[in-house]
Design brief:
- The structure holds two protein chains of two kinds.
- By secondary structure, chain A is mainly alpha-helical.
- Helix content of chain A is 72%, strand content 0%.
- Chain A folds into two domains: 52 residues; 30 residues.
- Chain A is built from three helices and no strands.
- Chain A is flat, with a radius of gyration of 18 Å.
- The N and C termini of chain A lie far apart (56 Å).
- Chain B is mostly helical.
- Chain B has a single domain, classed as Cytochrome c oxidase, subunit III, four-helix bundle (Four Helix Bundle (Hemerythrin (Met), subunit A)), CATH 1.20.120.
- In chain B, α1 runs antiparallel to α6, α2 packs across α6 and α6 runs antiparallel to α7.
- The chains are: A mainly alpha, B mainly alpha.
- At the A-B interface, α1, α2 and α3 of A face α1, α3 and α7 of B.
Chain lengths: 95, 198
């Protein structure tokens, strides 16, 4: 049985471009932290971190070219995290 | 490539383990989130004690190291052994610098009397006590993971050098890379939450 994903790899150039994107978003997140957006600051920071994380995940960790099992199990983990975080907030908020 | 190697199975096994790591740190981030909501201004005050420059440098270092590891995986598939070794060595070196910076950061705080159960924290605002408690636990646990990752990179380096890891058989390298990327991923979230809190 042939591993279909083994035949794909990213060229150095592509990986480097991803690095540049990551550095760019790092700059953005630092820059935005100097603006006082009140309660929004944390959310902006988290959104940017998630974007950066997605690039690391999709490209460096090769998820973009992985099969269903990995994609679905990964999304399942994130979904679990979502429940863990939101339900905890839901609990704490009403104490 | 022989199917007896089960590269897919090994990779899946690694990912399943990574999911447990995600949930581990996720739980700590839940703690952060709840206490941040409760002690927002104390967290902001705590964040000011942290050195942003160190934080940015460490972030850049880890991003670059992830690039280096990803490049080494490309290299092994292209049979470019030297580049694969260089990538692994670079990532290992980056991890070392990260830990050295972390040593200076912690040392500086300890000098200021900021460490778990210190008088300054116990007698001070509870929100700051919690902020720094979380800081030490989360960055400390992350630091342990950096050491583990560096160990994996080192092992991978040796195996590539001895050609036990080749273009036909590189799941060990891939899995070590995945672990390292995860460590980078976690830091990507730690950085804004601790260093960029307003």
């Amino acid at each position: 049985m042939e591993n279909k994903d083994v035949l794909h790899y990213f060229e150095y150039q592509s990986l480097f471009k991803v690095l540049l994107v990551l550095l760019f978003f790092t700059g953005i997140t630092v820059g935005v932290s100097y603006l006082d957006l009140g309660a929004l600051n944390v959310w902006v920071a988290l959104v940017i971190a998630s974007i950066k994380g997605s690039f690391v995940l999709l490209f460096f960790m090769h998820m973009k070219y992985e099969g269903r099992v990995l994609v679905i199990s990964f999304l399942g983990t994130i979904f679990f995290l979502g429940i863990m975080i939101s339900f905890t907030f839901w609990d704490v908020a009403f104490r | 490539m022989s199917s007896q190697q089960d590269a897919s199975g090994k990779k899946l096994g690694m990912w399943l383990f990574l999911y447990t790591e995600i949930i581990l740190f996720g739980g700590l981030f839940v703690l952060y989130a709840v206490y941040f909501a409760q002690y927002t201004s104390d967290f902001a005050e705590g964040g000011k004690v942290l050195d942003r420059l160190y934080g940015v440098v460490n972030t850049v270092i880890l991003l670059f190291s992830s690039f280096a590891v990803a490049a080494s995986i490309t290299a092994i598939q292209k049979k470019e052994k030297k580049i694969a070794l260089a990538g692994l060595a670079m990532a290992f070196f980056c991890g070392l610098i990260f830990l050295i910076i972390k040593y200076f950061e912690w040392g500086h705080k300890i000098e200021l009397g900021i460490f778990p159960n210190s008088e300054k924290l116990v007698d001070g605002p509870p929100g700051q006590n919690i902020f720094f408690g979380l800081y030490y636990i989360i960055t400390g646990l992350h630091g342990i993971h950096i050491v583990i990752g560096m160990t994996l990179l080192f092992v991978s380096f040796v195996f590539v050098f001895k050609e036990k890891v080749t273009h036909n058989r590189f799941t060990l390298l891939e899995n070590s890379g995945l672990y390292w990327h995860l460590v980078d991923l976690i830091w990507i979230f730690i950085f804004p939450l601790f260093y960029l809190v307003i």
